[in-house]
Write the structure tokens for this entry.
Amino acid sequence: MEKDQDKILSDVTSGEYKYGFYSDIEMDRIPKGLSEDVVRIISGKKNEPEWLLDFRLKAYRHWLIMKMPTWPNLKIPPINYQEIIFYAAPKLRKNLNSIDDIDPELKKTFDKLGIPLDEQKHLAGVAVDAVIDSVSVKTTFKETLAEMGIIFCSFSDAVKEYPDLVKRYMGSVVPYTDNFFATLNSAVFSDGSFCYIPKGVRCPMELSTYFRINSANTGQFERTLLIADEESYVSYLEGCTAPSRDENQLHAAIVEIVAEKNAEVKYSTVQNWYPGNKEGKGGVFNFVTKRGICKGENSKISWTQIETGSAITWKYPSCILRGDNSTGEFYSVAVTNNYQQADTGTKMIHIGKNTKSTIVSKGISAGKGQNSYRGLVKVLKNATNARNFSQCDSLLLGDKCGAHTFPYIEVDNQTAIVEHEATTSKIGEDQIFYCNQRGISTDDAIGLIVNGYAREVINKLPMEFAVEAQKLLQISLEGSVG
Amino acid sequence: MNGKSEVTERYIELYKENIDKISGVSSHYINSFREAAFEKFRELGIPTKKNEAYKYTNLNIFFDHDYKSYFMPVTSDFVKAEEFRCDVADLDTHGIVLLNGFYPTINEKLRQLPSGVWIGSLNEAAVRFADKIEKHYGKYAKTETDGLIHLNTAMASDGVFIYVPEGVTLTKPVQIVNLVQSDEDMFNQHRNLIIVEKNAEFSLIICDHTLSPKKFLTNAVTEVFVGENAHFDIIRVQNEHNNACKITHTFIHQEKNSVASSNNMTLHGGLIRNSTYHYLGGEGAESYSYGLFLADKWQHIDNFVNVDHASPHCTSNQLFKGVLDDMSTGAFNGRILVRPDAQGTLAYQKNNNILLTDDAKMDTKPQLEIYADDVKCSHGATVGQLDDDALFYLQSRGINKREARLMLMFGFAHEVIQNIKIEALRERMDNLVMQRLKGELSRCASCMVKCG
């Protein structure tokens, strides 16, 4: 029985990464390394206005005096910033009017990933902004959305077409001085998605950005800015993959969300960067700063993330609950297998009155994976009747992995009710036995239990992605249970 | 973490000026630790808020001050010690009094209790029981980040030594009364070593009191060795005035199948920081860590617990509760570490806090670090207020609001108190807590220092 389980466990954990292919696309790359000149080159390549270049340079100069923090529960090999290519873009033909103008190789890549750049195909309910390495190559359904006043385009286009909006909101949630990687991103960010939902509009389809790292030695630094004006609603998805390579690639992104009065934003991530091979070689460093601000009354921001990829994941999607009665939510499933490491969680900063936040974090560790939850719930002095509930569970599959919980709770108001609970355990032999008894094989039983465990979070995802996430979970854990 | 701050400099100077005096009265073996510890302290310094373990506690307000420290006991001390009457009147114990960190000359410095148990001054024991000291002293108080422990090792000159031989059950607990009395502001450090051998059973009560209205700073380290199958309980009752800062570090090292519990009852104090380190070093060991604090005015109470599951099949349980009134602040930092291969671990942790006013503040940081898979670990933390429904329930049954609140708070606190095994003490604690909750200053009731 035990041997059987071990075998199944090793089968499950040895699942292959299926997005590890590399596409041979004609690329425009700049030389590797980082300097003030590189920042200027990136800005120049994108024909950016003066104010944006100033922003980048300010960030770059600030970055030079910063040091990489050492507090996370992660073992990060030193990163040589002079060995990274900070800008790589597929060579584009001019005037992209129809789908036929896209490099066929590019289109093939996204087809292979299951992301339709073609508006007629399945997943028709999802508008996609496809980003490859440093630039956005195609945004679908742009026109349909524009009819409703929704702006959904690449960040570079937004800088050109809606400079006022960008100027007003960029850096308002994550200032360029925020943290080491956010500052780096502010200096060298290349592209990303920009989205603005006007007053009173309920976005009729899922908006989505698909990130793909393709070139070798490049880092990906994109920036997403999402603004939901009063009384609006949007559901936003983010997916990502990268080729399998022996070197580590850096991905340091920023996501900023602004929710005005009565607005609701749902932000879901299915993160599936290349996790490295079974010996822990290669893989993406996913160091991302994600933060949303509930600016107006009754606004709501909800983060959902399924983290299965990346060699190292280090991110804390957070909510600043400034408006009265605003709500913040965080649902997360983080899987670490083989030598993967994750230090992830959230921050809920209660500033307004009657603010509510919910945190549900499910960690799954297998192989030699190390999985940490780190979170902060802070109730400020004037946040009367603040309410928080946090639940952080960890599931251990295998005796070489680790699960850690570091919650911080800071309460400065007597009317606040803050609860935190966490459990850590492995799949019980009695649970597996129960399933076996009913004719379910050990392998299926483990899949069943893991899926049930993660269900609470997966249920928060939009339908198509929930199915995808479930499959992903199974692949990530293939052969890992015992 | 550059320790070269002005505050640290102050203690470096203090060391340099007095090290000869300190070494003069201590045994060679204890002195042999001092220099290395001092170097470590120099490197780490007085912990600041940048130190993760002291994130919520600002020590500078107490450390950045001119204190008198003295390194030799004064002969008149024992008179003062004699004057003191203990809070727990009907408690039958073997008493030891420490005055300003020294073992006063009131009795012989080291005495033997009927069952072969030795209690007395650490300095004295270092001479008489050199073998035991060498086996245990400095072996359990280990830290890579906390400069205060090194400061203690470098400079502490006396403290309590207790030796419970194999198989001995001491029916009466030993009570250490830590008194601080001085006409000047004073900094003192002491160091305790408690050895409970195989199959022995032993309870220790430590009471902390201040006897004069001056500013006091105490930095104490206690090392405990609990042998195979041994039982050990330590209960701290802290009742000091608002201008006193008490920092305790307790290291409990447990062997196979031993059971140890620690209970920190903090009734009063200006700034209190209790660090309790449980090390489960043998299979089947059990450890329990409890704490209760009631804070008001400007008090700050910080409990830090570290449970290290280094062996398989061990059990640990933590329960810490706090009631915060006025402008008081509290912090809790509990960590459970399950090392690789510590399979079969059961570890629980609970921290509940009640804020009574808008100005009170509570920071809590429960942590789990788990490197083994066959474990059951959980932790829960809450910060809130009294349950409105419960209040309503009681009121609807004719109990007035004030009474109902008291009952609920008392019930909240009693959950910790009920774990005290010594009945007389448990009842006395219930009493003190009740008085304290009613707002009668229990601390002053039995105190002969009329500080007004």
Notes: Chain A has one domain: 16-446. The first strand of chain A starts at residue 27 and ends at 29. Confidence is low (pLDDT under 50) at residues 9-13, 120-124 of chain A. Chain A is about 25% helix and 35% strand.
